[in-house]
Amino acid sequence: MTPEIDEIFQAVKDRHGADSITRVEEMVYAKRQERHPLQKDAKWIMPGISQKPWHDPYEHPEIEPVVRAFEAGHGAIKQELAAAWSDRNSAFSDYEHYLTRQENWQALYLFRDGGPVESSAALVPTAYTILTREVVEQGKLCPLLESHFSTLLPGASIAPHCDLWNFSINLHLAIDIPEGCGITVAGETRQWQEGECLLFDYSFEHEAWNKGDRPRTCLLVDLWHPETTAPEREALVGLITEIRKLMG
Question: Which end of the chain has fewer CB within 10 Å, C or N?
Answer without folding.
Answer: C
